[in-house]
Amino acid sequence: MLPRPFVLFVLTFAFASIVSPDTSRGFDDWPQWRGPHRDGISTDTGLLKEWPKEGPSVLWQVDTVGAGYSSLAIQDGRIYTQGDLEGVEQVLCLDAKTGDVIWAIQPEPSRLQLAERVAKEMENLDRNQDGRIDEVEALSRLGFEFNTFDRKTDGDPEALAGVRTERLFALLDTNQDQRLSAEEAGRPFYNEIERIDRSDESVDAKELAAKRTTDWIASCDKNSDGQHDLACESGDRFRGRAAWLGLQ
């Protein structure tokens, strides 16, 4: 599971003494956007004129609130804010004393919208309609980037990698000849094909490059005129594939 961006909350104690003229709320309450009166003004007194050289004392800090994009509301010992947890918008409630997350919940409109988008994306991804997204389906739709959203799971990583590799190979090897042609391996991996390719000292490099080129042109020669269709691939995909074929 690849790391996602996060916001670091730091609460600092910068008061020499605390006095609140409003006894209906605690000194640290900031119950709505821009404060009690939405004017950005705090009525607290006794604030330090200067911070200590080493800075104010850190009460706590957390990295469990995701990518934050909201201000804070503080009321009755709880902090309310919003954050992006693993790509999903959440309303968060934290303990003001410890920073522990008390609860996190998706806003209902966002939850419904996300559920609809996920359902449509799953339908587009699941080409064989078996109810699961295999490696080839994910690669075809999302490209090699889908690996950046992979998550950790239980078990031996090497053993799991072996199982997934065998499954992926079987899915890519459409003609079941135990070899991956440029057409079979190239389309799912695009410009990543050169990076994941490995040298084979027992094979003649020029002969292999010639065969790969022939296979590739054949796959793109839609009208069988012996010419490669430039619309078949372009840009980064072409450069990555060309390097793998030995054309660069």
Q: Could you walk me through the main structural features you see in this protein, from its secondary elements to its overall organization?
A:
A hairpin with a 2-residue loop joins strand 7 (78-85) and strand 8 (88-95). This protein has helices at residues 108-125, 135-142, 157-172, 182-189, 193-196, 205-220, 235-245, and strands at residues 9-13, 15-19, 45-47, 57-62, 67-68, 73-75, 78-85, 88-95, 101-105. The strands form three sheets. Strands 5, 6, 7, 8 and 9 form a five-stranded antiparallel β-sheet that branches. The chain is α+β, with helices and mostly antiparallel strands and 248 residues long. Among the domains are: 9-106, Beta Barrel (Thrombin, subunit H), CATH 2.40.10; 173-245.
* N-to-C series of helices and strands: EEEEEEEEEHHHHHHH
Structural class: alpha+beta
Helix content: 25-40%
Strand tally is: 9
* Helical stretch tally: 7
| Largest beta-sheet details | 5 strands, antiparallel
- CATH class of the domain at 9-106 equals Mainly Beta
The parts where pLDDT drops under 50 for at least 5 residues are 1-26, 234-240
Q: On the 0-100 scale, what is the average pLDDT?
A: 75
| CATH arch. level architecture of the domain at 9-106 | Beta Barrel
Percent of residues in beta strands? 15-25%
- What's the Cα radius of gyration? 28 Å
